UniProtKB/TrEMBL annotation:
Keyword Metal-binding: yes
Binding-site list for Fe cation 1: 8, 39-40, 177
Keywords: Hydrolase, Iron, Metal-binding
Binding site for Fe cation 2: 39, 67, 150, 175
Family note: Belongs to the YmdB-like family.
GO-annotated molecular function: 2',3'-cyclic-nucleotide 3'-phosphodiesterase activity; metal ion binding
CDD domains on file: MPP_DR1281 (cd07382)
Protein name: TIGR00282 family metallophosphoesterase
Enzyme active site: 68
Record-linked SUPFAM superfamilies: Metallo-dependent phosphatases (SSF56300)
Co-factor(s): Fe(3+)
Length: 259
């Protein structure tokens, strides 16, 4: 089966780019499933109920989150309303929502697991321990499992890739908004990339107005961030997974720039 994973969708610019290019990607790659990281979808901060519904109407199967999961109050309603929106599994157990979901796509059961990194990030439980815990339940339902590790450090992401090699179909990194060129299938059949990248404004700094960010670095004075607009980019990967074994055959990096 073919699974499209779209990197952090940032604001209206990113959402519109995703909607524009999805039909072409669906046709070109014969997609069976679509997963997006939506933690920046609502003007760069969290996710709203309306935006989540727009994603699902467009054909998205699962939305993952990250460290901005609680930035919009709608998320509490969303997590109660739709189990296909998942938050990092290694947040406190008392937090609302779930860190994984299994959905059926074209007769195939697919598990999606969301994790948050610890290095240079806000405090959270070990993503490695959470992965072990969640996989114990997911493996009873399916061997096709996609992991979104929302983390800062490439070393932590790579360690997770090797930790889960042969046990999940793919480990894809999100959060840094910069697409890496290290996509590969690890020896035991797990597809890996350190960061899928960002879907948002092309002429920006991580989706934010570049002048504001540059001025902040130059002057070291506080600046109110604002999202950039204009030309967009879409970063994603397409995973080709053997649904009978859960092993990946390939991972293809997608980088579309509307320049």
């Amino acid at each position: 089966m073919k699974i499209l994973f779209v990197g952090d969708i940032v604001g209206a610019c990113g959402r519109e780019a995703f909607y524009r290019h999805l039909p072409g990607l669906r046709q070109e790659h014969a997609l069976d499933m679509i997963v997006v990281n939506g933690e920046n979808a609502a003007h760069g901060r969290g996710l709203t109920l309306n935006i989540s519904e727009e994603f699902f109407e467009a054909g998205v199967d699962v939305i993952t989150m990250g460290n901005h999961v609680w930035d919009n109050k709608d998320i509490f309603q969303i997590l109660d309303y739709n189990p296909r929106v998942i938050r990092p599994a290694n947040l406190l157990a008392c937090n609302p929502g779930c860190g994984s979901v299994v959905c059926e796509v074209g007769g195939v059961r697919v598990g999606v697991l969301n994790l948050l990194g610890q290095v240079f990030m806000d405090p959270c439980d070990s993503p490695f321990a959470a992965a072990e815990r969640e996989l114990e339940a997911l493996k009873k339902q399916t061997d096709v499992i996609l992991v979104d590790l929302h983390a800062e450090a490439t070393s932590e992401k790579m360690a997770m890739g090797w930790f889960l090699d042969g046990r999940v179909s793919a480990v894809v990194g999100t959060h840094t908004h910069i697409q890496t060129a290290d996509e590969k299938v690890l020896p035991k059949g797990t597809a890996y990339i350190s960061d899928v990248g960002m879907t948002g404004a092309y002429y920006s700094v991580l989706g934010t107005d570049r002048k504001i960010v540059v001025d902040r670095f130059v002057t070291r004075l506080p600046q109110k961030f604002a999202l950039a607009d204009g030309a967009a980019q879409l970063n994603a990967v397409v995973l080709d997974v053997d649904e009978t074994t859960g092993k990946s055959r390939s991972i293809v990096r997608i980088a579309i720039a509307e320049t």
